[in-house]
Protein 1
Amino acid sequence: MSTNLKSTTYDAVVIGAGFSGLYMLHKLRGLGMSAVVFEAADDVGGTWYLNRYPGCRCDVESMHYSYSFDEELEQEWEWTEKYPAQPEIHAYLSHVADRHDLRKDIVLNTRVTSAHYDEGSGRWAVTTDSGETVDAQFVISAVGCLSTPKAPEIPGLDDFAGDWYHTGEWPEEKVDFTGKRVGIIGTGSSGIQVIPEVAKEAAHLTVFQRTPNYTIPTFNGPIDQELVADVKKNYREIRQMAKESGFGVPLPPPEKSALEVDPEERYAYYSKMWARGSVTSVLTAYTDLLVDQEANDTAAHFVHDRIREIVEDPEVAETLCPKDYPFGTKRPTMGTDYYETFNRDNVTLVDLRKDPLERITADGLKTEQGEWEFDVLILATGFDAMTGPLLAMDIRGRAGQPLAEKWKDGPHTYLGLSVAGFPNLFTITGPGSPSVLSNMPVAIEQHVDWIGDLLAYMREHGQSTAEADQQSEEEWTQLVAEYANATLHMKANSWYLGANVPGKPRVFMVYTGGVGVYRETCDEIAEAGYKGFELSA
Ligand code: NAP
């Protein structure tokens, strides 16, 4: 038995020690349950431990991207910047782990490889890559939505003679780009953050862009102390506002359609939202930006104008303007000096739409029209999102059914947190919940609290098994699809839809009804005695 494993039998196994896993462990302890957390990395922090590329930063403001369950911590913790950088979030999560003495129940460097449900005993057998199997009544996945890195599906990575790095698995030690020729594939949230930082150091940086992104500037800087004092004074109301909001950030809901205001007023309002340095402010400027193409176009054109204003070379500016999908339907990004970086002499933009990538070579990259030589290659090519980390484990439910088989046409869940045929398995921020369309800590706390309440209810009522019923699961899965179909999201080839992974079912994996509405639904279900779940002794 591993030195950190105290037993081979637990009430619950939690998979992952990021934002979700840490709070879940704390919650289980509060319920007096025995629990172990398995974490594949060598420290806690999850996404905020492994995504440590230069420039990595959250795009939700520090004061709101944090736990609300520990009111003392909320008052004590001092964020230093408007938007927290990766090292600061990792320090925060490490502090939470120490403050609540969580580490003693976390087994690091240990990846869960399988979880099999045994119908006879009603318990799960969870096996890890260190060869150990533990037995548990509950399995709670806290694996995150974006934790299975995806390489570009072009051949030749093994041939590359230089160093290469994926943004989602960045080494702990500093990578020195000084004097190096660097190539980067990918212009999503990660690419947009790393590009300006590498450009400052490298001899030359070549950016390979397949799809341009809408990037809102962060206007990041030291945190405003007046704002800190004000938020700390009013934290309860502010947290409540976030919980009831659309995206989990405390912003008042929009009131007007983009089409009911005159163009000058609308432009002025977009300018005001842009100056706030907050993507959510722009996205929620009007009620219909994500549901009406004409309304959306007004925001898209506003961003195009900003790009043309910042980027000096008109051809480069046009290449950077996203024109074939609506604003906000691929994850809109936030950057610091992103567009400005393309005014530098040591930065070249390659439009892969005009000159597609063919392969990675020993010296660099080969496109249809040319060869590019690099010392270092950066892959900012994203993740097999949402279902990727769950399906990377061999999870089997009743009658040995693999989750991968059940989800072969896309994820089927009830509330995004449970799966029919997989009793006592819970998926924090799983597919079918608001998850990545929420400020993550808000979505995570809501799921952990809800699961905690269910476990307490089961104990009170002498029940040992909770399982979503088939019909409720089907209805929920359909509702998630209907909601998505009512938005413009279906018009973009996004990772929300699985479109970034060849062969992945094209299914919108996120609940788009809004964080507040989702919470109300979950609460109503709980109040109705966990309607849609079969609870049994
Ligand atoms: P991503 O958004 O999926 O972006 C991947 C990029 O790589 C895209 O530009 C994609 O182009 C490109 N790409 C992938 N395969 C390619 C290929 N074979 N050839 C050429 N280009 C290829 O991934 P990400 O930037 O890592 O971000 C993922 C998510 O993580 C974000 O959307 C966000 O939710 C989260 N994140 C958040 C933050 C933050 O809070 N600030 C920071 C980083 C990440 P296509 O678009 O054409 O597929």
Note: The chain has two domains: 9-148+385-536, 181-379.
Protein 2
Amino acid sequence: MSVALPDAAAAEVRQAAAQAQPNIALIKYWGKRDIALNLPVVGSLSITLDSLWTRTSVRFDVALDQDEFRLNGRRDDAQLRRVAKCLDLLRARAGTQVRARVESHNNFPTGAGLASSASGFAALIVAGNAALDLDLSLAEQSILARRCSGSAARSIFGGFVEWTCGACEDGSDSFATPMLDASAWPLRVVVAITSKKEKAIGSTEGMNRTAETSPYQRAWVDGQEADLAIARAAVQARDFEKLADISEHSCLKMHALALAAQPGLLYWNAATMDCMHRVRALRASGLPVFFTIDAGPQVKAVCEPQAAAAVAAAMRDVPGVLDVVETGLGGAARLIEINELAAA
Ligand code: DP6
């Protein structure tokens, strides 16, 4: 005979809100060794930003018969499946079935290569952990965020962050750890926005297509450990030149890999290319700056603080650059008050 046990969370409404910032990989994640658990084929290294953010509230409520998701004040059914999958991971940990309403606000364009999934899922995991009183460690929060979107594993932490590839089949050793605080090496990032459209091929689809069809996949995986070692040493030594060289190498290698997929993945537009040339010219003239680009057309120019104004002016001057956003490096994902959600 089975007895229906009362759902632990059913008695109440539970809610919390959190903020997380996007991160930008300097040594890129591209490719999965397990699609279901979202395990990467390579480790990666990133910087977390400060003035771009996602703020997310989650409200588990017995009165709801299904999950709901609103982004920037509008119902977003297209993203609901991914959000519901993330809620399922949290519910499984809490042993509850209660549905939730999730509200998110981004202060930057969504889906255009600015890592909105990284900040979005990191914020949702941190909020969900608090709302359901899960008391998860930071490593466990990073693992849950990883399962929702790989790069979200890194946005749990601030400053310079490494996400370890791991070797365990269950993914229990594939999570991010903080390497260096933002204040220990306060680099600046100038984002040149060259398109405000949603990207055509998202990272997940792009990297799966690459793994199946790109002839360079093996070389990509084989070279990553050496790149990570160089980048780690550069960060520890605050060696800008060394970090610049290895970061541009990782970025260009990832795009070469994706370009060679079938059909080829071409994430750049003409302005993207012009920005890359401009950044290289600035560096040749002595300014400490390098570029990196993710699965979209925006160019992130990473520089020493004293170069930021000149880099921003140069990016603004490139034809086709629609907007320039400048930011420093920021802290870890954190809980906020519900009423801070949409505050600028
Ligand atoms: C190019 O983390 O968006 O930005 O795990 O499939 O959600 P999923 O992919 P996602 O991919 C990010 C790819 C990248 C490089 C990086 O951030 O390391």
Note: The chain has two domains: 12-184+338-342, 188-328.
